């Protein structure tokens, strides 16, 4: 069974540090609930004074002399687990907080309504590239993530790997993630950010170093020129309709208001984790994005079937 968003299905260094504390908190909560339920049940089942007969006065109320003492004993007992979890929490925070020194991979994630721009840093300008809604990381290496808010406040969360960090306009927050085994870990915006907050997901693809390096080398390549008439028509359409928001490296489309599409077809999902990336959903998304994500900035284009076909023929070359 897969639990893509379960923070109990731990797959990374930070999540593993938090996990024992999490289970302890759950155990304490269950124990406290059980104790209270038992005391309550005991109180309900205890012997009660018989109801007075008609005309008879109520018997005088017996006041327990040490009622107040029991209250203080109760408060004292409650403080023990509270204080213990406080100390434990501070210790865990101190462990997961510090950022990795000299990370080999650094990326900048910018959250927008409702998608994620991911920029990979490199020593040279030609080694920097953007992708969207999909983060590749090498396994067992801490990756530094600088977080930016493009419009409103969002929150970066990959439950199986680490906790949440907000992305705030005008401020750069930093977080780190590390996956201890290969896999695909789903991430989700964790701060309500508007109508399509729920459709603001992404994936972290953790792979061995060699595979990660191959992916990176491939992402650095620019898009191939159109190779057929249909592709050329599709590109012309793209340049006039889509190029003012999207970017495809190696072409005249250089805008950054929407996801970089240079290697669109290499991604597993479309529309920020909303749709699987296949020809049917690609066509559906371009045809009618407002039906899939109402309020998204991508407008319905009203394209003819022929235009849609040529546009798709071109987009499918972006591998
Ligand atoms: Cu972005 Cu919620």
TrEMBL record:
Its main location: membrane. The keyword Electron transport applies. GO terms for molecular function: copper ion binding; cytochrome-c oxidase activity; heme binding; oxidoreductase activity. Residues 102-218 form the Cytochrome oxidase subunit II copper A binding domain. Pfam families: COX2, Cytochrom_C. It is found in: Membrane. It catalyses: 4 Fe(II)-[cytochrome c] + O2 + 8 H(+)(in) = 4 Fe(III)-[cytochrome c] + 2 H2O + 4 H(+)(out). This is cytochrome-c oxidase. The gene is coxB.
